[in-house]
Write a structure and sequence with these properties.
Layout: E1 11-15, H1 25-42, E2 46-49, H2 63-73, E3 78-85, H3 91-104, E4 109-114, H4 121-128, H5 138-150, E5 167-171, H6 174-183, E6 186-189, H7 198-208, E7 220-228, H8 232-250, H9 269-279, E8 284-287, H10 289-303, E9 307-311, H11 317-331
């Protein structure tokens, strides 16, 4: 059996187009384009953008629009959604949007689908105008979406119909793992924020997988937060930006992405403990390039992942570019 490592599995990028404190979405989108162009040249496999709403620090809410912007600014890398939260949308609209993207950038578009709202209840209502659509209806929504691409829907998606756009199912529990297995689809698990559920979910997916016309064997991509810097101390300092964002969400006070800090006297003991726990888990790998390579290699060997998608939540753009550059060098 081949031992999976950086040399024989693809690395990809997950981007939320973070909106920094003191900056604007315009600057965030420029940074996303610059990052995408760098990782395109460096040999990363995919560049995915995630749908979130009503969050001041995340700029990728109009996900399909941003996918087109990134695809138009790059040459080789696949660009897609990590993911589109399907309950927020009419399936026909997504078929048309991604049919348009695939027509503009043939062979480079991925459609990753999630069943969570990517927002709070009030925002979900504002998006849908009703909360009658539940996550439990997700399998039927996926089936409807596929019917538009196949040309078997009760109306037709133009563009979209007849196009071969890879559909991924995303999840942070075993629900989508079971659905991806039953329908023979690619599966991406959010281990970057649900690390404790990673192994159970991918075991279920692999054990229950049924081959389909899309895929003859299981394919798993796992999300990981990675911050690589020249010193472990700097990497840990850079990680405090993500922790501030996380605690802001927990406290119900989301804000723009904050610069790193030396010490936060506002954190209580539980929050400090949560910070330390996140740094000691495979869901958040930080350190020098050698430390990151060691931890990420161990994670790949333990999970037998087919691909890794990396989120690097770093405030300063030049530090974020540098972190991905270290990863690119590990692939060589």
């Amino acid at each position: 059996m081949t031992v999976k490592s950086f040399q024989n599995i693809p690395l990809s990028v997950l981007d939320l187009s973070p909106i920094n404190e003191g900056s604007t979405p315009t600057e965030s989108f420029k940074n996303s384009v610059d990052l995408a162009q760098h990782v395109d040249r460096w040999g990363f496999n995919r560049y995915w953008l995630a749908e979130h709403h009503n969050m001041p620090g995340i700029g990728s809410s109009a996900t399909s629009v941003l996918i087109g912007h990134i695809a138009g600014a790059t040459e080789r890398i696949r660009v897609g959604s990590g993911g589109i939260m399907l309950p927020n949308h009419a399936a026909l609209v997504i078929a048309e949007q991604f049919g348009t993207l695939e027509s503009l950038y043939p062979g480079r578009i991925d459609l990753g689908l999630g069943r969570a709202p990517g927002s709070d209840h009030a925002t979900a209502y504002a998006l849908r105008r009703t909360l009658n659509t539940s996550a439990e209806q997700f399998p039927e929504m996926v089936q409807e979406l596929e019917s538009y691409f196949a040309g078997t829907g009760f109306v037709h998606a133009h563009p979209g119909e007849g196009l071969d756009i890879p559909i991924w199912l995303l999840g942070s529990s075993d629900f989508s793992a079971r659905l991806a297995a039953r329908t023979g689809k690619r599966f991406s698990f959010a281990s970057h924020f649900s690390n404790q559920n990673t192994m159970p979910a991918i075991r279920i997916y692999r054990d229950l997988f049924e081959p389909s016309g899309e895929l003859d064997k299981p394919y798993v991509m796992l999300g990981v937060n990675v911050i690589a810097a020249e010193t472990a101390e700097k990497a840990r300092w850079l990680a405090t930006s993500q922790q501030q964002q996380m605690f802001g969400l927990i406290r119900g006070k989301p804000g723009k992405f904050q610069p790193p800090i030396d010490e936060n006297t506002d954190w209580n003991e539980d929050e400090r403990f949560a910070f330390e726990q996140s740094l000691s888990s495979n869901s958040f790998i930080i350190g020098t390039p050698d430390q990151v390579k060691e931890q990420l290699t161990q994670f790949i060997e333990e999970t037998k992942a087919d691909e890794i998608i990396i989120n690097s939540p770093i405030y300063h753009h030049e530090d974020r570019i540098e972190s991905y550059k270290y990863l690119a060098e590990m692939m060589q």
